Amino acid sequence: MKYFRKILKYAKPYRAYAWLNIVANIFYALFGTLAFVSLMPMLKVLFDNSVKVTTPPVYEGITKAGDYFEAYMNYFITQKIEASGELSALMIMIGLVIGTFLLKNFFGYLAMFFITFLRNGVLKDLRNDLYKKTVALPVSFYSEKRKGDTIARISTDVLEIQHSFLSILELIVREPLMIIFTIIAMLTISVKLTIFVFIFIPVSGFVISLIGKSLKRHSDNVQKEQGFFLSILEETLGGLKIIKGFNAEKIFNEKFQGSTSRFFKYSNTLLNRQNLASPISEFLGIVVIAILLWFGGSMVLVEKTLPPEAFIVYMGLAYNILTPAKAISKASYGVKKGNAAAERVLEILETESTIKDKESAIKKESFEAAIQLETISFKYEEDWVLQDFSLKVPKGSTVALVGQSGSGKSTIANLLTRFYDVNKGTISIDGTNIKDISLKSLRSLMGLVTQDSILFNDTVKGNLLIANEDASEEAIIEALKVANAWEFVQHLPQGIHTNIGDSGNKLSGGQKQRLSIARAVLKNPPIMILDEATSALDTESERLVQDALEKMMQNRTSVVIAHRLSTIQNADLIVVLSKGKIVEKGKHQELLEKKGTYYSLVEMQSLS
Fold first, then answer.
1. Does 545 score more than 60 pLDDT?
2. Residue % of the chain over a pLDDT of 90
3. Which domains does the chain have, with CATH numbers?
4. Alpha-carbon 208 to chain mean position
5. Rounded to an integer, what distance in angstroms lies between the CA atom of residue 187 and that of residue 37?
6. CB atoms within 10 A of CB 30
7. What is the pLDDT of residues 500-529, one digit of tens each?
8. Among 552, 353, 561, residue whose Cα is nearest residue 467
């Protein structure tokens, strides 16, 4: 139940609905009990079994409440029969029964009406917090976790919490109150019979509880497997061209079918165990009713200590206990199932982000002097990617980082933007350690253009507004012109209001990259980080993109991670990396004259 308590804190903003639900449930339980009790005067008239009482009875305390109730009922019936006749009295009694059942159902609806706002409110807030946390967690978190598993937690696990944990909120007041009011009514009819009944209820409750013990484990398996096949689906949709191009449909089909087969097996085990709850609880309830019929029947027929109409009403009340008791037993299985879902959801919510602002983090509004990397070392797992790396990038300069794949170029971009933190050394801007600068203000100083053009299923305008949500259409068009993107955007069906599809797939690679550049231009940051921005393009697209990049880099400080060396010949400083260390640095012509590593890289590219 510890997970249930943690989830329950999300109900606090909706506690007004909880109180209204409780009030409605109190009346529901009260009228639910009275609905059965109101049958007794009708049965007395029907069986002509009412004792004529002409004077109102006197209440003599709680111990004789049953006798008082029976005497008052007989007095009421006597008055009605004498005033209007037996048939009219019967009609009044029937009206009383209908009225109590109507009120019971009216308050039952009200209770459900109010709890709906609470349940859906908790669901909304939980999803919002999960999404917020998903965005806030560092990039490194998702290099270890499957994306599909995260999607499963936000979608299916949260729904499971709603169906299991939050359904308890409906039962937590209503069903116990129904049982309490029913027991009070049963005690007023016959204390002896009620004590007899309650000898058997704990026995049946113990049997039911034995079934639910392994439900959490089976439920956990189901939810983990669901996350696994959602991951396969997400990977399949993302890599469909590769799967088709390599005729790998069979491999992925087998992988997916293996997962769904395991899901089938786990689900069958879970649901069969869960489905066992209802028939067992019903059978045990009927056993209790059968014993009750035997014991109560002897009180009516042999001992003559209980009137027949009272016994019929008592039987109805006893059955009235079974429904809430069954609901509570089913809810207990729901808690065990929901526990597994809540554990998975809370695992994300309670994960501490390794990259976050210090309490004393400052807001840096401008870039004045230089970016300084001082003897930094970094590793993703075991092997060092960068070791004792130092570099100074003065304001207004363009520094290019070159080297073979795996030399640590893109890692530097990840460290400058604090997607990852250095293991040793410091990175500072204007002499201030970037760990002492708030993440928001640090990233506000930087524009990022990556090798993969990351665009969203939105309009051209919507994709650019990510950089500056207050930008006017004129500013957007100007940014598109700087990025050489306006030439194709203006011919799109609806111009900047055209949807570019999932990941921008309605556009060519060069067009997507130019939109990425336009987004960075619209942000207008003092520092620009270009991570192999032209490596995936054809020659014509590269020329247009390179021209756009050069326009964008004017009067800015730029860190360019280059794959194609022809694009960085005008850089103020070229830094050549190998295995995480600087092996050469200088201007293009200087490095060519040295005929070292840079010269070899240029030669290899000119031959290819």
1. yes
2. 12
3. 2-17+118-349 (1.20.1560.10)
4. 31
5. 12
6. 17
7. 988 788 888 888 888 888 888 888 889 988
8. 552
